[in-house]
Every structure is written in structure tokens, then in C-alpha cells.
Amino acid sequence: MKYLFVLCFLFQVISMSANAQSYKYHTVKKGETVFSISQSYSIDEEDIYKYNPEAKNGIGIDEKLVIPISENKTEVSLNTETSAKSVSFKEHEVKKKETLYSLSKEYGVSIDNIKRYNKQLYSKELQIGETIQIPVGNIPAENVVVTNSPQPELTYQSNEAPAEKPVNSKASSSSQNYKTREHIVLPQETKYGIARKYGMTLKELDEMNPKVEILQPGMMIRVGTAVLDEEPVIITDDRFRFYEVKPQETLYRLSKKFAVSQDSLIRLNPALTEGLKFGMVLKVPKKDGSSENVEEERYTGMGSGSQSKVDLKSFIDNRDTKEIALMLPFHLDKVDADSIPTYRNAILNERVIRISLDFHSGVLMAVEKAKSMGISTKLKVYDTRRSTGEVSNILRTNNFDHVDAVIGPLIQDVTETVAGALENRNIPVINPLSNRSMKGYGNLFQSRPSEEFLRSKMVDYIARNASGKNVIVIADSKSFAIKNELMSALPSARTVNPSDNFVSEAKLAEVMSSGENWVILESENMNLISSVAAALNRLTRNNKITLLTTNKNNGYESDVISNNHLGKLKLHYPSVDKEFDTQQDDEFVKEYAKKFKVQPNQYAMRGYDLTMDVLLRLASAEDLYESFEKYPGYTEYYESKFHYLMKPEGGYTNDAIYILNLNEDLTITEANDL
Fold first, then answer.
1. Each residue's pLDDT tens digit, 333-386
2. Which residues pair with 322 in a beta bridge?
3. Cα gap 285→292, rounded to integer Å
4. pLDDT digit string (tens) for 187-206?
5. What's CA 465's distance to the chain center, in Å?
6. CA max distance for the chain
7. 80-139: CATH homologous superfamily?
């Protein structure tokens, strides 16, 4: 019987090889129709409709179509020797600030084709001084996948026996709620890979295809429509495998399980930006060997040193003059040359102008400090007037060819205008204060993390340190989203529901334990915050209580809220900045007071910290981008620290924040993991 099975298997392999079919993904361009596409591939329109039935309802720009390629045509187009002869190359030595994007524009060739003939660029960035081959001749078609013979299951599949499905687990949404489309199974594709590509769970994929047990190349199956924004890739790297998310698992737990950061998991699995769900299929590194760290570094540029502090003053070696463009809304158009008091009144009444002037004063202090370290800076200051039209005019009438970085503007849409205009020159644009989500320009750096990011970091902190604690979650109706996230990370936590923005002492006493109690309060309502703080303060006579929140909002600043209560409860909260004591005997404070006749405020401190970080990074590397590769740790100054990560949608965000602790004497210190 064993030999009969082997013979049958060999027969199946031979049969599949004989009937092998090749496919290509075609991205629809402007003006293309099904007919014109069929003509370009010398196939019938019906062949396209067969593999893309939804195309009968029309096709859109950037939509991907499966194109069947005849065997003879494919063999010719993929004959390596023949293709190589028809392609000519030009050697190009990579210069400072050049990117794949700028080279593709310069030579009129796609980024994919540059990578195609320079394989090292699939796993690393361009290196200054590196010589690469630019294809300039008749380049053969890309992305054709050929099936010469079926392949065995790939090495990234887990060899473990399938885990039993836990009972009482809520499965993800039924496939009946999905809009579906057809997918042609490519050679070497598995159910794991297909589920991941379409952001589905294995259960959903199986429900859509109940009669499909074994996938075969060329087979048509039903899938969802939420395609990940990536080309179909067959992963043969044995550093990875696919993992199916179990019930009650959180992103934090998975990051610990596979020894990678949460940001790396998101980079590896873009579908995670929509949230983690039971049954989701994730690409994860294998735990054997050191491959996790290698992949972590490839995807985040940070490696294992991301949690260590680095002092860039020790690495200054680039003494070239730094050219910085500072863009802030000073509104000089409101200045009456004959009436300085008019502008003084404008400053007093315009908060944005005051912030700009304070930030500018901090920038000037940083430039002076950098000069004392041997870093020369050419600072050009521009008034944006909070206008996209004004910054467009600034960019059009001024030479930015030698600018190393732009600091500012303050406002979101104005920042996006500048970043979009300078992206093709790869000039970094660092927004100093906005925490709003911005467009994914590759040169845009958001130095202030979003409120969602702060909340996420605080949840991680709580999850890491909640072991052995009696955790109690209090959240009003407007905070249901963060409540769900907390309960997902802390499934054993107790909940107390407010009534009319009030929680009684008796209700809280019912859920207290004799050990350590952690109370997480989520609300922006000052009455609820006040009632909880007052009740907990009274309960501290007989209970050990710590108050925590993921969002220390303006409700906590109300006169109704007693800071003494919050201090006694050791309030823990996330923050972008830590509070610097300007009363201490510090050289910066003395110099600032001497120069501007006032104590520096938070915006002056921010201007100093951000500018000093930019100048030190430029002085310790060829450019800002290289500094992140050379020095993966975080940098820290008076009130801020910086550690930039690439965002899945493009650009960079600072993920370095503080978890702060309000002490009983009302001083503020940084909270460490317990």
C-alpha cells in the first residue's frame, strides 16, 4: 500500500507539471480597458474575465488583475540569457540624498526594475558611494510566476500538531458578511499565505471554500476583497513562519512570544493596523537562531538597541556646515512698521504666534550650544503665515538644494504641503508639535506621538506590570474603545460602571482587595474624575491604591480636581514630555534667562530639544536617515526624547515617550517597570 501511495503521488506530480500554467499580476493604468490589456498580452477578453469576474463590472486605476500567460510565451519572456542580451545597463554611483525614487525618475525606470538587477536592494537601502546597475534597454516583463513543477510545503510552515480550538471562543465575523472575489492559486501558495494576503482568518477562508481541501496551482477559490497593499510574495526564507492568533492573545503578548517589538509585527503584517483578531494569520520570525533580531533591524531600522540611550555628542564626525530651514507662523504681515505696539498686541492675542516665538527662542539656544561643540549651522527662518499658498511660494522662490532638514511648520496641512514638495529631494521635514495623523510622505517626521500611540504604550506598561495586582477599570460611555483594549490586555480585570458621571465609595470598596489595587480611570469628565479621586483617597486609609490613566486630559487640570488626591494616589500617566525644573541651577536656564529676560517655557524647551537632536544627528552621520541606522537607541534632552520608527503608511514617527508618576509631594518622576 505504501508503494501504491508513492506511485500515485508521483503520477500527480507529473500530471500537474504537464498542465502547468503561468500567471502575472497586472496593475491597471490610466486609460486602459479590458480589451487593450488583453491585446497587450495576446489573450482573449474572456481569459481576463475568467480569472477576474469582477472586471465585468469595470476596472479601476491601480487595480490588480490576474493574467494567464501561455506556456510558450512565458518560456521566452523569462529566458534569462535571452532577456539579459536585450537589456543594457548604466553604472551609477550613489550620491548623498539620492533615493530609489529619485533614481527611477532620473532614468525613467521603475523602482522594481532597479531592484530586479540589484538584488541587494531587496534587503537593504542604497549606500552612499555604492555602484549599481541601471537597466536602460528593452527590459523584459516583470512579476511573472512560472509553474514548472509543484513544490512541497515551504519551510516556514509550523511542524507542530494543530492546536485544539479553545472552547467558548468568539470566532471572527462570519464569511457570510464578506464581499468576495476570485483568487487564482499561484504556485507554492498555501492557505496560510492566502489568508494573510486578504486579511482573513483560516476559518473564514475555509467557510468560503468548503469543498477545497488541498490547494493546486491554477485553482480558483473565493476570498475577501481587502487585499493587502503588497505584491504576492512566496516566502522561502526559513527565518519566518505563519502563526494563527489564539483567543485572548494581545499584540503585547505576541511581541513577547516571538521576541520582536510590536512595531515590527505591524511592519511584517500591515493588516494589524486595523486591529488584532482571533484567527488572524500573521507572519512571524522563528524563535531559533538570531533571525529575529536580523528581521527586526531590517523592518524598523532599530535592532535590539532601541531601548538603550545614546549620547550623540560622543560621535560627532561630520563637521560640514548644517543648513536648517525653520518654518513657523510668525505672521509678520500683521506688523505695522510704524507701530510696534500693534504687533505686541497681536502676540498677546495670538496663541500660535506666541508659541512660534517661544519655539524659535529655543532653536536659537540650540544653534548656539551646537556652535560650542564645533557644529556650524546656517539657519534660515521663514514665516509660513499658516498658509499652504505662502509655503508654496517660499519653496518656489528659495533654493532648498543644500538644506539638510526643515524644522516645522506647526500646522498639519502646511507641513504636508512642504513634505510633499520636498519628498523627491529626500529632504527631511520634522513637524515639532502636531500629534495628528499626517499623509505618509517618506521624508515626513512627526516628533510628537499621537494620543492613540500614548494610550497604546500605557496599556503595554500596565500589562507588563499588572501581575499580582487587583486591576479595576472605570470608563465612561465615551471611552468604550480604550476600555475594550484594556480588557483585551487584562482579561481578569474587574470593571466598575459610572452612573451619571459618578462612582460611589461603597461601589469601589466592593471590588477592593487586601493586596495592591490598580485603578484605571478613563474619562474626560471632570465630575467623574473628581468623584473617583475623592472616593479612592478616602479608601487609601485601609487599602493600597494606585490610580492610572491612559489619557491625562484637561479634565485632570480642573480646579475641581484635588492635586493632593492625585498625588496621594500616585497617579501614573503617559506623556510626550517630562517636566523640567527651571528653578534648578542649570547652565541652559541661566543662559536663556540672560538672553531673553524670562524663564524658558515648554515650547522653548521643545525648540531646544528638537533642534539639538537634529543638529547632533546631522553631525554624527551623513544625513538624518543614516543616523537612525548607525545609532538605533533613543536620544534624550531636557524635556523630550526621540526614537523614530517607520510608519506602515510611510514617513516616520517618534515612539519615545514617558510614563510619569505624580508623587505625594506633587513632584513628578519617571515610572520604571516594577
1. 766 555 556 656 666 567 888 899 999 999 999 999 999 999 999 999 999 988
2. 377
3. 5
4. 667 777 788 777 777 778 88
5. 25
6. 103
7. LysM domain (3.10.350.10)
Contact indicator for 524, 551 with CB cutoff of 8 Å: yes
What residues does each domain of the chain span?
23-77, 80-139, 175-300, 312-448+604-642, 452-575+662-670
User: Using CA atoms, how far apart are residues 607 and 368, in angstroms rounded to an integer?
Assistant: 13
Distance CA 664, CA 135 (A): 67
Q: 572 near 329, Cβ under 8 Å?
A: no
Instruction: Return the HEC string of 207-246.
Output: HHCCCCCCCCCCCEEEEECCCCCCCCCCCCCCCEEEEECC
- From CA 172, how far away is CA 415, in angstroms rounded? 39
Reported CATH class of domain 175-300: alpha beta
CA atoms of 392 and 524, how far apart (whole Å): 39
List the 494-496 sheet strands across, edge first: 494-496, 470-475, 516-522, 544-548, 572-575, 658-662, 668-670
Alpha-carbon distance of 119 to 429, in angstroms, equals 30
Does 148 score more than 50 pLDDT? no
Q: What is the CATH number of domain 452-575+662-670?
A: 3.40.50.2300
Whether 208 and 221 have beta carbons less than 8 Å apart is answered as yes
What is the CATH topology of the domain spanning 23-77?
A: Membrane-bound Lytic Murein Transglycosylase D; Chain A (3.10.350)
pTM: 0.56
Residues 214-254: tens digit of each pLDDT = 777 777 888 877 665 444 333 444 567 778 787 666 777 78
Assigned fold of 312-448+604-642: Rossmann fold (3.40.50)
